[in-house]
Amino acid sequence: MSNHSIGWLGTGRMGAVMAGMLLDSGADVTVWNRTVAKTEPLAAKGAKVAGTVAELADRDIVFVMVSASADLIAVTKGDGGLLTADQKPKVIVDCSTVSAEASAEVRAAAEAAGVAFLASPISGNPHMVAEGRAAIVTSGPKETFDEVRRYLDVMAPTVVWAGPGEECRLVKICHNLLLGMITQALVEVTALAEKGGVTRAAFTDFINGSVLGSTFIQHKSRAIVARDYTPTFNNKMLRKDYDLGLGAARTLEVPMPLSSMVHQLIQTAIGHGFAEEDYAALYEVEARAAGLPLRD
């Protein structure tokens, strides 16, 4: 694809799909993951496997996909991190959903070490990314974005540059707040229809065929109809994003009444034992409140 050498740090469900797309495009990719077994499918596709994070530091561009702000700081600034090695990558591209504060901290450390830093969170679950229906929002130096964009384009048909700093972090958090609010609205009206004698399948088929239908509602309605909450994004992860979003709202003095309510409903789902299940399990909270039959 080009003469850039690529490192990929973090090959969980999402990271594995994204790194696999780069490999399929012909990129030279070396991967690292804390659980080595999760790198094996990528190695079978031709990826080299690094034994430590520091072994990625000689790559031109290193993409990072981790689950939390503390993880991003650890793999960049921590012992054995990307920025602590004698040789350092030219560019770090972080595709995780983390706080703007953590992102700014890592950006400052990268710039002090002479490394360009792009924040590039992605929208879409692993299935949607693999199907080519993801979107990436990026912020950081425009010239770095222009250099890296060809790789972002491989992973998502929509790639947007939002500004020179941490703007994309707020965009992604707002996006995830909206995910929760739309899902809560969907489970409420589905439960109402069901309590009135309409099957979940009939109701959601109607919604999906109407002007309100969307790719997102189609995916979530399938989970709700089947009451199958195999996680694409679990309730604990969504709660983290609501914590970040409501924190940003306090800082910026923006009232968020709907988000605040959904935050507590996500917490209720976690309290009912759905922490590790997909956030479509908000339906189970609503069903219990409505007196509908519990899931078997």
UniProtKB/TrEMBL annotation:
Q: Which residues form the active site?
A: 172
UniProt key word Hydrolase: no
**Segments forming domain 3-hydroxyisobutyrate dehydrogenase-like NAD-binding:** 170-284
Q: Which InterPro entries match?
A: 6-PGluconate_DH-like_C_sf, 6PGD_dom2, 6PGDH_NADP-bd, HIBADH-like_NADP-bd, HIBADH-related, HIBADH-related_NP60_sf, NAD(P)-bd_dom_sf
Q: Which UniProt keywords apply?
A: NAD, Oxidoreductase
* Domain 6-phosphogluconate dehydrogenase NADP-binding as annotated: residue spans: 5-163
Extract the GO molecular function terms from the UniProt entry.
NAD binding; NADP binding; oxidoreductase activity
* Superkingdom: Bacteria
- Tell whether Oxidoreductase is among the UniProt keywords: yes
Q: Which family does it belong to?
A: Belongs to the HIBADH-related family.
Official protein name in the record: 3-hydroxyisobutyrate dehydrogenase
Q: Which organism is it from?
A: Sinosporangium siamense
